[in-house]
Every structure is written in structure tokens, then in C-alpha cells.
Write a structure and sequence with these properties.
This protein is an alpha/beta fold. About 45% of the residues lie in helices and about 15% in strands. The protein contains 14 helices and twelve strands. The protein has a seven-stranded mixed sheet with strand order 9-8-7-6-10-11-12, sandwiched between helices. The termini are far apart.
Length: about 425
């Protein structure tokens, strides 16, 4: 259940404005970052398997290129809309800034349900969409990546389509593609691994022992399942997980490897069909309100809102999804003393390793998975320490600490470059 009626872009603007004022900026100094640089809306005609011609709606939005090429995923989901994509693009700008990689922010999306499309329909939809946004993307302009409803195979189709249009292979146009055609080792697990590293960092900061700490994970897609698996391996007791069909809960801890095996065994497997001794089925709302030390919302935005924030019992929230907590919910959680590690820090592992993949592509290099994971850990650890330090110095939340760093880096880059002409 989402907090319907909330506008994620308005949420983002409010936080950015607050951070800019705290940093002492005049409105004219940060006014430009309130608006995306480019917005493209496209109509995508596709012949379906039954012969019908169906037209899908798609978007590609570049929020900022002040610090480098735009970077951001492509989402295939029925709820995709302009405000959501604008917010996601802006979050990417600040996410890249908080971990200090040389990218701006972008995002794309198509209004569709990929689970209802055949492979042929999905491929044709992807290729036509790529052709329509091709003037905006490229390794030096804007580099897409996977997001909700997309995967490595879809990135491979985008890379091939763009390469065919250019007349030569351009692996650096996307990240998150299959390793066999230029993808980075470790990219598939990178976002979830980053969430795991951030969770361990906040436990260390709060002096909470890792072993036996209880955690709930909302969303068992790529990010949630990876975070759950890696945290389970570290000794965290995952007591509840959920997906679109609902959740499962076990007081003594779930067998996470078994849950993940079940979900990946067959396309269409959902937690509503998972059965095991001592496991009970719960709703997504019940999962968010269950008792645990840590809650990791790793589904969609606006999941924790004014209507349910008071019922959250977790002491710590680590945001695996983009924008899972609304502004008013954030205030409620702060009053309750809940520590929230923000999305632009917690789930930045994916874009960090996307950066590694892009660097390898444009320089024709090859890195080992160990090298990738080691450098991911370095960046996530350094970024976490910087956010904690500035939050303590200013007496603000970790979210505001992250935005103080990110907004300053983006505004300063814009000031140094100036307004053209």
C-alpha cells in the first residue's frame, strides 16, 4: 500500500530548499536545481502478439548535468508518471553527489506492466523506446540503467539498439547490462550490497551488535532480496519479508536462502505461495508495523506515510527504495526517535558500481568482482562517515546531513560553471 496523494517531486523540493537555506544560499544560487534540465515524453507504438497496435507512454528526464553526464535507471511499471520520474531524476542528482561520483541525475520510465508482456512485446517496446530517446542518451550525455521492472537483458537490448543506430558497438551507453557484453562483475548485487554495508555502518555507529539484530525487508526484488541475503549471512536475523502479494514472518528468523530460492525458482513465484513451518503470512502494512530493530523499505516510494508512520516499531530505517518515506512521515519518525538512513546514501551502491562499469567500458578495462566490491565498500563507508559527521556538526537528521553535502556539491558546481550564455 502506498501513501496515495503524495507528490514525491514536491517532497524533494521541500528538502532541497531546506538544505540550501541551512547552507546559507540565496534563492538565485539554487533556483536552477529546482527544475529538470530536459523532459521528454514519448508515445511508443508496439504491435502486440495478437496483432493489435498498442501505444505506450514513456519518459526520459534529465534533472542535472552540472557535475557530469546524467545517470539514472529506466522503470517499467503501471504507476509510472511524470512527477515520479522527475523526483527519481532529482534524487539521482543528489545520490551521485553524496557519494561524490562525477554524474548528474536522470530517470526514465514506461507506463506498462512487464509481467503481462511476452518477451517479443517487451523487446519491441524497449527497442522502440530506445530509438525515441536516442538523441538524449549516450556515454557522454546520459547513461541509463536498470530500475523497477527492468533488468540486465533489457539493458542489453538498449545497448544493441543504440549501437545499431550509431553503426558501431557502444557498450558505455548503459550500465547494468549482462557481463558478456560489457557489464561489470558485482553490478547485479551492488544496490543490495550497498544497503547491507550501510546497515552494518549504522549498527556500528549506534553500537548495536550485528549478530541477532532483527530486521524486516519490504520488497523482495533485486535490492531487497540481495540485502536480505547478505545481512542474513552477516548474522542479522531477518524476521519478515514482503513483496507485492504480501509478506511472511517468523519470530525466530526466516530461512532467507530458502525464501530467495523459492522466489527465483519460477517466474511468477510470489511470497503468497511460500510455505514453511513456523512461518505466518502477513500484509505489507503489518510488516511495516512489526516489531524489529531495523526496517528496510526496498519497494516503491511513499510506503511510509502520515497514515502509518506512528505504527512503525523499528528503531532504525535504512531506505533501500527511492523515496519510501514521505516528508510528514519523516517528521513523525524523528519525533519518535527513529533513526532514518536516507535513500540517497543507503541505496547508492547501484550507481557507484554503474560508475565502475562505465569507466571500464569507456577505457576498455576489466575489473574483478573482488576489486569492484572492495572499492564499493570504500566509497559507501567514506560517504556514510561524511554524512554522520555533518549531521552531528549541524544537529540535524542523517537525511538532512546527506542533503547538506549533496546540495552544496551540486550548487557549487553550477556556480563554478555559471549560467550560459
Amino acid at each position: 500500500m502506498s501513501g496515495g496523494g503524495y507528490n514525491p517531486y514536491e517532497n524533494m523540493l521541500s528538502i532541497v530548499g531546506n538544505a540550501a537555506e541551512r547552507l546559507g544560499y540565496q534563492q538565485c544560487e539554487y533556483e536552477a536545481i529546482k527544475y529538470p534540465e530536459r523532459e521528454l515524453k514519448v508515445s511508443i507504438p508496439v504491435y502486440m502478439d495478437d496483432g493489435r497496435l498498442q501505444v505506450f507512454e514513456g519518459y526520459r528526464i534529465q534533472h542535472s548535468t552540472s557535475r557530469g553526464p546524467a545517470k539514472g535507471g529506466i522503470r517499467f511499471h503501471p504507476a509510472v508518471n511524470l512527477d515520479e520520474v522527475k523526483a527519481l531524476a532529482a534524487w539521482m542528482t543528489f545520490k551521485c553527489a553524496v557519494v561524490n561520483i562525477p554524474y548528474g541525475g536522470a530517470k526514465g520510465g514506461i507506463v506498462c506492466d512487464p509481467s503481462r508482456l511476452s518477451e517479443r512485446e517487451l523487446r519491441h517496446l524497449t527497442r522502440r523506446f530506445t530509438a525515441m530517446i536516442a538523441p538524449m542518451i549516450g556515454p557522454e550525455q546520459d547513461i541509463p540503467a536498470p530500475d523497477v521492472g527492468t533488468n540486465a537483458n533489457i539493458m542489453g537490448w538498449i545497448m544493441d539498439t543504440y549501437s545499431m543506430l550509431k553503426g558501431h558497438c557502444v557498450p558505455g551507453v548503459v550500465t547494468g547490462k549482462p557481463v558478456e557484453i560489457g557489464g561489470a562483475l558485482g553490478r547485479g548485487e551492488a544496490t543490495g550490497r550497498g544497503v547491507m554495508l550501510t546497515t552494518l555502518n549504522i549498527l556500528r555507529e549506534l553500537k548495536i551488535p550485528v549478530k541477532g539484530t532483527t530486521a524486516l525487508v519490504q520488497g523482495m526484488g533485486n535490492v531487497g532480496s540481495t540485502a536480505a541475503k547478505l545481512l542474513h549471512r552477516e548474522g542479522v536475523k531477518i524476521t519478515g519479508v514482503s513483496d507485492v502479494s504480501g509478506g511472511v514472518f517468523a519470530e525466530e528468523g526466516l530461512d532467507i536462502p530458502d525464501v530467495v530460492r523459492y522466489l527465483r525458482a519460477k517466474k511468477g513465484n510470489l511470497l503468497s505461495g511460500y510455505e514453511s513451518a513456523k512461518v505466518r503470512h502477513i500484509t505489507n502494512e503489518e510488516l511495516l508495523a512489526a516489531k524489529a530493530d531495523i526496517l528496510i523499505p526496498a519497494a516503491l516510494e511513499n510506503q511510509i506515510h502520515k497514515g502509518n508512520a506512528k505504527s512503525v516499531q523499528a528503531k532504525v530505517i535504512v531506505e533501500g527504495a527511492n523515496g519510501p518515506t514521505t516528508l510528514d512521515a519523516d517528521e513523525i519518525l524523528q519525533e519518535k526517535g527513529v533513526v532514518v538512513v536516507p535513500d540517497i546514501l543507503a541505496n547508492a551502491g547501484g550507481v557507484v558500481v554503474s560508475y565502475f562499469e562505465w569507466v571500464q567500458n569507456i577505457q576498455s578495462l576489466y575489473w574483478t568482482e573482488e576489486y569492484v566490491n572492495e572499492h564499493l565498500k570504500q566509497i559507501m563507508d567514506q560517504s556514510f562517515e561524511s554524512v554522520v559527521q555533518i549531521a552531528k556538526e549541524n544537529g540535524v537528521s542523517l537525511r538532512m546531513g546527506a542533503y547538506l553535502i549533496a546540495v552544496k556539491r551540486v550548487v557549487e558546481a553550477k556556480k563554478l560553471r555559471g549560467v550560459w550564455p
